[in-house]
From TrEMBL, chains A, B:
PROSITE patterns per UniProt: TSAA_1, TSAA_2
Name assigned to this protein: TsaA-like domain-containing protein
Pfam families tied to this protein: TrmO_C, TrmO_N
Record-linked Gene3D superfamilies: YaeB-like
Coiled coil: none
Provenance organism: Neisseria meningitidis serogroup B / serotype 15 (strain H44/76)
Superkingdom of this protein's organism: Bacteria
SUPFAM superfamilies for this protein: YaeB-like
Keywords from the named record: S-adenosyl-L-methionine
């Protein structure tokens, strides 16, 4: 027995590629995403949702569908050195490729289409959304729950912007978004090569940076080629 | 574009019918469910999961698939009088019929099949499970989040057992399960008919009870006919 899932909408996100996406929702507060519902979902379908602070977004990890899944994966939190069961992780390489993100609901626009503006997003642009549910703290807030190998927020990198690369042209939010995203240390596990230049496509920019010790330096910035 | 979802396992639950299932996970701690993974998921797939207190269970509301979905629903929390957008509720009558429950993970049995023993279940027996994820408190615990029309636990009914109906033959856990389930007030919204006898099939029993004011009385108990 299988089930057919039809997306209810699509996420518009500043993350245009997998590299650089925050590894959990809420870590990059400047990452704003807009969830655009398909036309058949009217303002009625979200009535009352504006009174909730957070929403659960269920989605398909469409960017890794062709990479399949694995019984065990190497979580970045363990430096990529240790394997954990896929169901003990939030890896996208899971059966059914279902994702779940708790996003802050900033506002709802009930036009055609209905749009949910959220912050703290960790969604790739174009992500198919398959469900939206309100967050219910008395059921879902368990501050003292044990969480295995995941203990608190990861340590952030210090982010430094090289001079004369045009950072003054960025909006405050875009600069924040880039800084916060790099601070999460998007490097693949194992990699620690100070001379290596990483390229991130984010918002409408191609950003280049290097990482040495606990400091990241943004060395170049250019509009993404169309 | 649609996606095909293949269950990864099945829930074995004391709730044999929709009527009487706790309306949220965690409300009925005595409700123990066992999630049995399909044979292709080995002990590897859950390695490390035992160190988490809670698990997210994504599932299909298979009991209402044929009832379809609606843009607006009447949440029991509003007495069934007011309509809310389906995405502002946790109603099973939603597009894609995807459910999400936070269950307490009691223990894992890594035999063939792999079994996850959970408590606080709100799952119908036979529910197809489509994903399991660990609960990460630093991302997912938002104790102060506003939650619209849902404010704290619902008030529980007092549950009284009539004498001489054989309740002494029940195990402590089964008696607890029945009491806690009835205390949640499983009546459909609008109904307030003291003489009405409600019948609940739970664990291996058929339980009859009445509700007057804030008190429920269990009036009959018999093993479920095979």
């Amino acid at each position: 027995m299988t089930y057919t899932i039809t997306p209810i909408g699509t996420a518009r996100s500043p993350y245009k590629q997998k590299f650089g996406i925050a590894r959990q929702p809420g870590l990059v507060s400047a990452a704003k995403a807009c969830i655009e519902l398909n036309p058949k979902f009217t303002a009625d379908s979200v009535r009352g949702l504006e009174d909730f602070d957070y929403v659960w977004i269920s989605f398909i990890f469409h960017g890794v569908l062709d990479e399949g899944w694995a019984q065990m994966v190497r979580p970045p939190r363990l430096g990529g050195k240790q394997k954990m069961g896929v169901f003990a992780t939030r890896s996208p390489h899971r059966p059914n490729h279902l994702g779940l993100s708790l996003l802050k609901l900033e506002r709802i626009e009930t036009g055609k289409p209905v749009r949910l503006y959220c912050s703290g997003a960790d969604l790739l642009d174009g992500t198919p959304i398959v469900d939206i549910k309100p967050y219910i703290p008395f059921v879902e807030s368990k501050p003292d729950a044990a969480s295995g190998f995941v203990s608190g927020k990861p340590v952030e990198l210090e982010v430094v912007w090289q001079e004369n690369i045009g950072a003054e042209n960025l909006s405050a939010n875009t600069k924040n978004l880039i800084s916060q995203s790099i601070a999460q240390d998007p490097r693949p596990a194992y990699q620690n090569i100070p001379e290596r230049i990483y390229v991130m496509n984010i918002a409408d920019y191609e950003v280049r940076f290097q990482i040495e010790e606990n400091r990241a330096t943004v060395i170049d910035l250019s509009p993404t080629p169309l």
